[in-house]
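Field log, afternoon session.

UNIT: design team B
ACTIVITY: writing a sequence onto a fixed backbone
BACKBONE:
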C-alpha cells in the first residue's frame, strides 16, 4: 500500500513503524519466513480481495454449469477451494516479492 501523500510504501496496518522500514512482521529473509507470513495471515489484506475476485470468476466459468445443474460432488467442492487458494497464494507471493530483507 502506498501513501496517498508522497507515494512511499506504507507498512501493513499491524506494524508499528512507518515509511519504508521493514520488520519481521512484514518482511522475510528465508523462504520459511515467507511461508510463516502467509500462514499467519500477514498477506491477507492484499491476497483476500484477489482470491475472492479471481476464485469466483474461475469457479463460475469452470464449475457454474455443474453447480447450476445440481451435479456438484465432493470433487466440485475441492476444486472450488483450489480455485480460491491458488490466486491467494499467487497474490501473497507477489506481495512478499517486494518485502525480502537483506
Ligand atoms: Zn513491519
Amino acid at each position: 500500500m502506498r501513501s496517498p501523500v508522497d507515494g512511499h510504501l506504507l507498512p501493513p496496518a499491524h506494524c508499528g513503524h512507518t515509511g519504508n522500514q521493514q520488520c519481521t512482521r512484514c518482511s522475510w529473509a528465508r523462504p520459511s519466513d515467507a511461508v510463516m507470513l502467509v500462514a499467519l495471515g500477514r498477506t491477507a489484506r492484499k491476497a483476500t480481495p484477489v482470491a475472492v475476485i479471481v476464485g469466483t470468476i474461475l469457479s463460475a466459468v469452470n464449475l457454474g454449469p455443474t453447480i447450476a445443474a445440481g451435479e456438484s460432488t465432493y470433487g466440485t467442492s475441492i476444486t472450488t477451494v483450489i480455485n480460491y487458494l491458488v490466486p491467494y497464494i499467487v497474490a501473497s507471493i507477489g506481495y512478499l516479492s517486494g518485502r525480502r530483507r537483506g
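LOG NOTE: The pocket of zinc ion is lined by residues 11, 15, 17, 22-23, 25-26 (CB under 6 Å).
NEXT ACTIVITY: expression trials, pending approval
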